[in-house]
Amino acid sequence: MSKQTPASDPLMAQRDGALMHLRLNRPAKRNAVNDTLIECLDRAFATLPEDVGCVVLSGEGAHFCAGLDLGELAERSVYEGVQHSRMWHAALERIQYARVPVLAVLHGAVVGGGLEIAAAAHLRVAEASAFYGLPEGQRGLFVGGGGSVRIPRLMGVARMADMMLTGRVFAADEGQQAGLSNYLVAEGEGLAKAFELARKISGNAPLSNFAVIQALPRIAELGPNEGLFMESLVAAIAQGDPAAKQRMQAFLDGKAAKVAKS
């Protein structure tokens, strides 16, 4: 590992070759998010070094993120509330539409705004201790960090409504079945699995990774005819990339691994 940010920072950054590890760093608050942490996330993803190929996002301590820090929740007018929500939207869009893939490692509480942050990542690795909740409905609130858009795309509207209306909490295995995580591993194994995946992903052609995280979600929102046309354009651009040509030639020469059951 290379140089990292000071341990007192609310968001710690550490390099491991082509990988960037970002850690929510408010463990005494279960990594509850205040405005400073959101601003740090926004800045970190806006200024990713050009040689970073993949980002791993995790939480320091016993939890990924317990949501919005209600202890710092100021009384706001409707207009101020809209502006605060839009600040979260801007930061989480930096994650969803980052230049490179983002993997979130989930353990302990993945609650409220923490689940909204996790949903903005491209892949999620959950440990057995992870649990998911959306308590906003029990507190007279509504999700404001993009959760109403992103979370239903992972688990469906009905499941999300259940969590908000009744306070239902999903355990790690239930979250895996519902689509909140892509991988479920034993406690303490999340970072190792995420870095294994991140190294594999960062070895892909950069343009191919970019197309998957940028074009795929947009194509999925288009009508069938528009989506198919956009797919053709992106496919043509990707296969014309020099890195893609090298990989295809390596496959034809028998130098690249074939798809096989793991």
Fold and architecture overview:
The protein is α/β, with parallel strands linked by helices and 262 residues long. It has two domains: 11-202, 2-enoyl-CoA Hydratase, Chain A, domain 1 (Alpha-Beta Complex); 206-252, Orthogonal Bundle (Lyase 2-enoyl-coa Hydratase, Chain  A, domain 2). 46% of the residues lie in helices and 15% in strands. Strand 2 (19-24), helix 1 and strand 3 (54-59) form a beta-alpha-beta unit. Helix 2 packs parallel to helix 3 (113-120), helix 4 (147-155) crosses helix 5 and helix 8 (206-220) packs antiparallel against helix 9. It is globular, with a radius of gyration of 19 Å.
In short:
With 262 residues, the chain is of the alpha/beta class.
Please identify the top-level CATH class of the largest domain.
Answer: Alpha Beta
Please give the order of strands in the largest beta sheet. Answer: 1-2-3-4-6-9
Mean pLDDT: 90
Estimated helix fraction: 40-55%
Give the strand tally.
9
Largest sheet: 6 strands, mixed
CATH superfamily of the largest domain: 2-enoyl-CoA Hydratase, Chain A, domain 1
Order of helices and strands: EEHEHEEHEEHHEHEHHHH
Q: Give unreliable regions as ranges.
A: none
SS-based class: alpha/beta
Q: How much strand? A: 5-15%
- The shape is globular
The CATH architecture of the largest domain comes to Alpha-Beta Complex
> What's the number of structural domains?
2
How many alpha or pi helices? Answer: 10
Q: Radius of gyration, rounded?
A: 19 Å
CATH topology of the largest domain: 2-enoyl-CoA Hydratase, Chain A, domain 1
- Termini separation comes to 29 Å
